[in-house]
Each structure stands twice: as C-alpha cells, then as structure tokens.
Amino acid sequence: MVKVNVTKRGNLFQYRFEIAPQGGTRKYINKSGFKTRQEAYEAGVKAYNEYINVGHTFQPATMSFSDYLDYWMKTYCEVNLRYNTIQAYKSIIKNHIKPKLGFYRLSQITTATLQEFINDVYVKHGASKNYLKNFIKILKSSFGYATDIVEFIKINPALKIKVPKYEGKDTDPAHIFTPEEIEMIFNRFRNSHCIYYAFLTAYYTGLRISEVFGLTWEDIDFENKTLTVDRNIVKKNQEGGTKKRLIKGQSTTVWYFGPCKTEASYRTIEIGDTLVEALKAFKEEQELYKEQYGEMYIKHYAKEVMNPYTNKPETKIVNAAAEIEVALPEVHLVFVKNNGAFEGNDTCKYPFKVIHYELGIPCRFHDFRDTHATRLIEAGADIKAVSKRLGHSTIETTYNIYVRVTVKMEEEIVSKFENYASALEIGFSKQPQCSV
C-alpha cells in the first residue's frame, strides 16, 4: 500500500511520505501547492513510486518497450553516442520500432517477436541489408543495456535475431572514380570555387567530408606543406523550429565543431604542390571578396555552449555581418561562399545531383576518399602510411573497406606470377610424346 498522506495548508494541499532515516532521524518528502486533494494524492503516489524504484518513474517488470526505449535513449545513447547517430536511432525508433513493438511490455518481448518484426520490415518495406542491420543493432544494444547494465530483464531476446537472406552479392556503395570521371567533375565545377576546391582537397588528401568542411586556414601550413585535422564539423537541427534553410532567418540548422571520429583521426599529413598552390589561390580570392563585400561579408565566430545531453562544453559556430562587432574569437573557415556564407556539408547536396544526373557518374563525397586510398595502394604506397594518412585506427580497416581492386592491379597480379613462373624454367613440350 502506498503510504502517502495528504493535508490541507490554507487553500492548498500537500503530500507527505516517509523515506529512509538518516543518522537515526526520521526523514520525509513533502510538496505543497496543489489545488485539490486528489491532485496532491496522485502527485504523491507518483513521487513515492519513483522513490521506491530508486529514481525511476516506472516499474521495470511492467514498463512498456516504448517507455524503456526513451529511458535507454536518455541514459545511454545521449550520453555516449555522437549526435548524428542519436538522430538516426531516434528516426528508426519513432517510425518503425515503436509503432510495431512499443506497446508490448519490455519483459514480454521474445526472440520470435523480434525476428518476425525484422522479417516484416524486410518483406513489406524492401529495406536494404545495411539499413536492416541498423534495426538489429538498435535492438541488440537496447536489450543488452536492459540485461547487462540496468538488469531490468534476465535474458537478451535480440541476441539470436538474424538478417534475412538477400539474393546475390552485397552491394558495395563505393565508386572509384576513373581519371576521365575526375576530369569531368572538376571541369564541371571549375567556376564554382567553394565546391571545386573542397572536391580538390578531398581528392588529394582522402579526408572525410566532415573533416574537409571543418578546416580553417590555420590548419593549412603553406610553408611546410602540411594539413592538420583536429576537429569535425557537425550539423544540428535546433528543436522546435522549421528545417527550411535560408528563408528569412527561419533556418534551424546550426553548425558545431565536434571531436574527430577516432583518436587516430587526429593527424597532420603532407600535401603536394598542386593542392598547396590551389589553396593559396583560393585564399587570395577570398581576401578580394572580403574587400568587395565590405561590411556585408559574413564572418564566423566560435561560441562555447553546453551540450544538453552530456552537460559538457562544445563549440557552436555563429555568424554575423562584418559590420557587427562580436566579442567572440573569429573562425576562419576555408570552404565558404563568395559572401562568406558557410553551409558545411550541405554545400555538396546540389553538386552531387549534377554529377549523378547530368554527368551520369555514381557518386558520394566518400568516393573521393576511397579513390585516394585505392590510387595510393595501386601506385605501391606502403599500407601503413596510407592507413595513417586516412586516420584509421587499424591497417585492417584500410584493407577491408577502402582499398578496392582495380583492373590495373588485377593485371599486375597476373604479370607478376607470369614473371615468377617463367624464372623457374618449368617448360613444357608443344608436341606430346606418346609411347606404345
């Protein structure tokens, strides 16, 4: 029985219940300000149940899977995962998992229930294999947290669920640009300098898209011909607003500087004369545009704010016209438009449509990175050096993900074996000798 007492204080009501004694003294929790006795009692019961369950507003044995997913998202995902991962998980949970499984109790869900759900997504929605793996990853991780960490349930029902069998080979989204395709791409955007030089940087360095657009001019050492990566650019949509961009100040898109993907991603790499001279020319051009736009040129500043999930400081990028004085450190972003406007990764959205539909070339920004790695290996570069240049944690990542076999490499394998075999002088007779 819930031990909540309700008393009247003046014209209002308060609830009160006893909690564990401290130092031999009896202690109570009480709260007043309720207009009716029933309102005070209901609030008191809720507070008492939360106290009994050590801060939880639910009973783990009877809570719904929907409520548990909210709990897992708040106590684990928002604390440990990156912003983009959190948003991807929230989308899948909201649009797929909760509508089908959310009404079940957490303790009620079985492996069969989850496998039927995965099969249903596969059959009815035609989800790709990689997309379906994200569903399974969420289910295994959330149920793993429920069993191994908070111990709400004893068995993880998601451990044995499988991805349905897909016919044919797994599709590889990577496309290694041929020299002809690279030439077509750069010729098409030669007059769109923000895009042109961003593509050029990616092609000559193998940087990730978030690393390219996170660059500032201070990261490029023209004298020593090096480029330093020590941050990512992260896009966040502010809560409660429209997602429309560049419409009378209604945009809710905000850019932040975030940490690199892994510890190995923090790196300084050498760059060649071609990229050095190209970026020098781009910087000189930016200085001219600053003079032409004058007080209307957009400048960017670093503002330290608190991350609402982790309660840790992070750097938000704010902007203002040059005529406005801002008491914040200025950020000299490399890839901005002629008027100084910064659109981060969104800069590439339209260009990639042009590459795909107009030029007829399959493309992702990551293909510049894949192409860079493959051409280095194809040219005989040391795999360890390539791995370090790409910011990989292990050499295996470089081998398994980014190094694609090209026609040239396949031909070289055959010719190398031919040279080896011919040196053995094995020989064979053109005319078979028969004995009677």
The gist of it:
This protein has 436 residues and is of the alpha+beta class.
Q: What is the molecular shape? A: globular
Q: What's the CATH class label of the largest domain?
A: Mainly Alpha
* SSE string, helices as H and strands as E: EEEHHHHHHHHEEEEEHEEEHHHHH
Radius of gyration: 30 Å
Count of separate structural domains:
3
Give your account of this protein's structure.
The chain is α+β, with helices and mostly antiparallel strands and 436 residues long. It folds into 3 domains: 5-52, no CATH class; 65-149, Orthogonal Bundle (DNA polymerase, domain 1); 179-358, hpI Integrase, Chain A (Orthogonal Bundle). 44% of the residues lie in helices and 16% in strands. The chain contains 14 helices and 11 strands. The chain has helices at residues 37-52, 65-80, 83-101, 111-125, 129-149, 179-188, 193-205, 209-212, 273-293, 349-358, 366-378, 383-390, 395-402, 407-422, and strands spanning 5-9, 12-22, 25-34, 220-221, 226-229, 232-237, 253-258, 267-270, 298-306, 313-321, 330-331. The strands form 3 sheets. The protein has a 5-stranded antiparallel beta sheet with strand order 6-7-10-9-11. A 3-stranded antiparallel beta sheet has the order 1-2-3, covered by helices on one side. A hairpin with a 4-residue loop joins strand 4 (220-221) and strand 5 (226-229). Helix 2 (65-80) packs antiparallel against helix 3, helix 4 (111-125) runs antiparallel to helix 5 and helix 7 runs antiparallel to helix 9 (273-293). The radius of gyration is 30 Å and the shape is globular. The termini are far apart. The model is unreliable at 240-250 (pLDDT under 50).
